[in-house]
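Consortium newsletter contribution from the modelling node. Members have asked for a concrete example of what our holo predictions look like. Here is one, prepared for the S-adenosylmethionine complex that several groups have been discussing at recent meetings.
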Amino acid sequence: MADLFIKQSKQYAVGRPGYPEKLFQFIASKTASHDLAWDVGTGSGQAVRSLAGIFKNVVATDTSQEQLECAPKLPNVRYEHTPPVLSIPEIEQKLAPKSSVDLVTIAQALHWFDLPSFYQQMKWVLKKPNGVIAAWCYTLPRVNNSVDTVFDRFYANDVEPYWDPARKLVDNKYKTIDFPFEPVSGEDNTGPFEFATERLMDLDDLFTYIRSWSAYQTAKEKGVELLKDDVMGAFKQAWNADGGDGQKAVIYPINLRIGRVGN
Ligand SMILES: C[S@@+](CC[C@H](N)C(=O)[O-])C[C@H]1O[C@@H](n2cnc3c(N)ncnc32)[C@H](O)[C@@H]1O
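And here is the predicted structure:
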């Protein structure tokens, strides 16, 4: 799985959205202290800059060295290349001691993980009882009626066969993902809580985003170009339908699951 993110790591770094400060402020308001955060499946560090502004230290890990090489270098962030499943001794030696982490974040990546072993490790490394785990995903970007119609048709008809089955968890906005944690203070459930991130994008940016999908990479490996001329033509017509062919405000809806480890 992780291999799918290696080949398009440069596209990934420019093609993917960042996340709003509101999201990080909400999450950070639920942790008892702000000493250490661990961003798992960090990719090219889409969540790292904001975490580094709030937490004294950040560890950011990924199974793809190529992704990590595209991540921002910051004085209080340590990047580590890891295998897909870590053992407790590996965590202890390379990443963090037992019960030492205030916050684990997983941005657009939890659906790729082996959840039972991952959760066991997170319960070991998080501070007890108030260490927080926050995992979010974003669904299809929304532009306007005409672009959204073309995008939804493309996603359902052309792209669907090339997604890993785990993508369904994202389509379901993480409502159905296993998340065995207690509600954080001030909340009576673990979400999903809704946020949104906005980017100014032109049509080429939208195509770069599509090329950063694992499904795009899978299709390409099977000899299928998803962004064929007719598809790009339909997107172009829809993009220009409002009379503007330049940048537009594009919204990515975000769904957050957040919980604390308990005792
Ligand atoms: C869709 S990307 C998300 C990257 C980034 N967090 C973001 O918000 O855009 C998923 C990332 O998870 C990484 N990944 C996949 N399986 C992993 C695992 N078991 N442990 C750590 N990282 C993993 C991939 O290499 C990839 O960089």
